[in-house]
Write a structure and sequence with these properties.
73% of the residues lie in helices and 3% in strands. By secondary structure, it is mostly helical. The chain has a two-stranded antiparallel sheet with strand order 1-2. The longest helix is centred in the last third of the chain and has 32 residues, at 325-356. It starts with 6 loop residues before the first helix and ends in a 6-residue tail after the last helix.
């Protein structure tokens, strides 16, 4: 808390309450009121997260802004919140992305406007709850509840196959999470009838139990990332989701998996995490290389960027399980950068789709002749996606590769290959869409981005360059949290039992 304000509770409940207020505006007759209330609610929700950063002391270990109240006393479950450097950056990214998504859907969404805006606001609050929870039962409730708004977003405002994509997304992620609930119940008893993460961290589990708990967590978080081979739901969800849904899915929801590994898997079952790290690293490298090749042959821009997300998130799981400070910090910075860059790329595709109602690369060509400002911004995000130095896309990948080099040269070599593939599929798509002569009459009628579109893409462009040129403000809050995490993991080395 800061100056008497429960900032984390505000970050969770302010967007949820704003979402309920938006729903109360009624149907589409009050669409403009829904938009205005949604924007005010999203802006307030982002504003209350700024003191979390300004008031955060990066020199302190442990958790800050802690709140704790009794919740379900029969199970010794508490409303227990707190953040470290890892969760701080993800909460800021989530709250900012919600503001961008509300503005992005301002003119595009014409039906069920209040429900659309409310779904994103509620989703934002629930995801902040995941990042701030220090109680396992509270974490699980928030983690599973995020499925509902995203299921509605894809299923109601998505494309022609939206129902199939929404059901596939829901089933994949729900089934993966059910095993983690069993693991949490086991840990509850192992920790002395407590759902506190701190009691989980102190629990001394035999190796066989650690392995089973790790596998249960892995099923939940690997699907969420998503890792190869449980990634097939993501391209379908992205292709069918509305632009705002794709932005939030890529920028925030995928990070729930990476965050789960950092908050639960590594500190709760450190010995199993180290024992099975080669398996996770192998799957991550397959995602980085193989999915990069899959992205090369895509003809749909959204599907290409979706596969690109899987490849880039492979860096997150790779860096996490190298147990190296540089690599872990690189993985976290990669999560934040991916939020900026992939979100911006999906917004760029949305800008084109709103004008042409097509995502097929073959339907475009010569866009730069009609939309020069858009082409310049699109170029920046394409370069960032390819890992160009000076952009945010370079920083996280560079740190992961540097960390991998200290662990195993071949890990670093295999990971660096994706920089070639990333440049190939991103720039080849950009060339076919933006350069050359005007391809057809539809392209000839295109108009450049308006002020609203320039605002949302401009903000992401500034953040992409800021992190690329001066990553220190992002990295400095991570050092102590990452070192504490790795110290805990390396300290616990139980004999096989």
């Amino acid at each position: 808390m800061m100056q008497g304000l429960p900032l984390l509770s505000l970050a969770i409940w302010a967007p949820i309450i704003a979402g309920i207020a938006v729903l109360l505006t009624g149907g589409d007759r009050n669409a403009q009121a829904s938009r205005v209330i949604a924007l005010i609610g999203a802006a307030i929700s982002f504003a209350v997260t700024i003191p979390l950063y300004t008031g955060f002391n990066p020199q302190l270990g442990g958790f800050q802004f802690v709140e704790m109240r009794p919740w379900i006393e029969a199970f010794n479950a508490n409303y227990h919140l707190g953040i470290d450097g890892i969760s701080l950056l993800l909460i800021l990214l989530n709250s900012l992305t919600t503001v961008i998504v509300v503005i992005a859907g301002w003119e595009v969404i014409r039906s069920r406007v209040s429900q659309y805006m409310a779904a994103f606001l509620v989703l934002s609050g629930l995801m902040n709850g995941v990042f701030a929870s220090l109680d396992a039962l509270l974490f699980y409730v928030f983690f599973e509840a995020t499925l509902i708004p995203m299921f509605i977003i894809v299923g109601v405002w998505g494309g022609p196959n939206r129902v199939y994509a929404a059901v596939k997304f829901f089933l994949y992620t729900l089934l993966g999470s059910l095993l983690s609930l069993v693991a949490l119940i086991y840990l509850y008893f192992a920790a002395g009838a407590s759902f506190s993460f701190f009691d989980f961290y102190r629990a001394q589990l035999p190796m066989i139990a650690q392995l089973l708990v790790f596998i249960a967590f892995f099923m939940a978080f690997a699907v969420k990332v998503p890792m190869w081979p449980v990634h097939t739901w993501l391209p379908d969800a992205h292709v069918e989701a509305p632009t705002g849904g794709s932005v939030v899915l890529a920028a925030i929801m995928l990070k729930l998996g990476g965050y789960g590994f950092l908050r639960l898997s590594l500190p709760i079952v450190p010995d199993a995490s180290q024992l099975l790290a080669p398996v996770v690293i192998t799957l991550s490298l397959i995602a980085v290389v193989y999915i990069g090749l899959v992205a090369l042959v895509q003809t749909d821009m959204k599907k290409l960027i979706a596969y690109s997300s899987i490849s880039h998130m492979g860096f997150v799981t790779l860096g996490t399980f190298l147990f190296n400070p540089q690599a872990v910090e690189g993985a976290i910075i990669q999560m934040i950068s991916h939020g900026f860059v992939s979100g911006a790329l999906f917004l760029c595709v949305g800008v084109l789709y709103d004008r042409m109602h097509s995502r097929n690369i073959a339907d475009y060509g010569g866009v730069a002749n009609r939309m020069p400002v858009f082409a310049a911004l699109f170029m920046l995000f394409a370069m960032a996606n390819a890992g160009l130095p000076g952009t945010s896309g370079f920083v996280g990948e560079f740190l992961v590769i540097m960390g991998a080099m200290q662990v195993n040269f071949w890990y670093a070599f295999a990971a660096s290959v994706t920089l070639i593939f990333g440049a190939a599929y991103t720039l080849w798509m950009y060339k076919r869409v933006v350069f050359g002569a005007v391809a057809n009459d539809h392209v000839a009628e295109l108009k450049d981005i308006n002020a609203r579109e320039f605002l949302i893409l401009g903000v992401l462009a500034v953040l992409t360059l800021w992190m690329g040129i001066w990553p220190q403000p992002f990295a400095e809050v991570l050092h102590v949290s990452v070192n504490d995490l790795l110290a805990h993991v390396s300290f616990s080395k139980l004999p096989l039992q």
